[in-house]
Amino acid sequence: MIKILSDSTCDLSKELVERYDLGIIPLYVRLGDEEYQDGVNISPEELYKWSDEHGETPKTAAPSIEDISKYLDPDSGDEYIIFTISSSMSASFNNVRLAAENLEMSDRVYVIDSANLSTGIGLLVLYAAELKKAGKSAKEIVQEIENTKGKVRASFVVDTLVYLHRGGRCSGVAALLGTALKLHPRIAVADGAMHPEKKYRGSSKRFILDYVKDMEADLKNARPERVFITHSGCDREIVEAVRDYLSSLGVFNEILETRAGGVVSSHCGPGTLGVLFIDK
User: What share of residues in the chain are helix, strand, coil (percent, to 5)?
Assistant: First the structure.
């Protein structure tokens, strides 16, 4: 049997996790001396409240080797395909690899460095589950995922620079200027790292729709299976406007909405929204 798992940064909803029979390994979020499991016993709203009260970004940590080992059964004949957040952003990838080595299961635990985050990982996880359902072997699935990784298009636009500044990803001067000028950066994931690409201005609805419409050519060249709208707590009206726009393109069979989990939310803050898909 092939089992497909991911660390919690894939930001897939419980409904999708159940539908595709996935396993989720939570990362840790630390608020001062208190430690929580991402997606288990802490919500993004609680993270924002703590961050605003303390003026700092919550710390995040990879699952330990011991944590990961609980998801692996050395006495079974199962094969495991496990996705992690980009190895340049976390020790998650390395810890999964070490857990497999410790249990002498490296020959049947395939660890995939997604080189991505959030539903940029989620897109690959769901594709792997579909390949499994189609009867592909673990090695065939892994090879196809490795061939597809570079086609994932993951980006998001940030409402406030405060959280990026607290996390050390934006200088104080830049955060002050950006906030004063009401600038909203678009950040894309490429080669396993986050890169600022463009800045938008205006109200939340305006800059988010401008961000999405700027991707129209790429969206029209996307694989039709699905597109994700992933956000860290946006107004319903804005999310529905994005959904209506994506629907109007007539490209996607499925438009999925998910909430960003604790790890992504703690660094980007509320009001962040991304549209994520796979290129043809």
Answer: 40, 25, 35
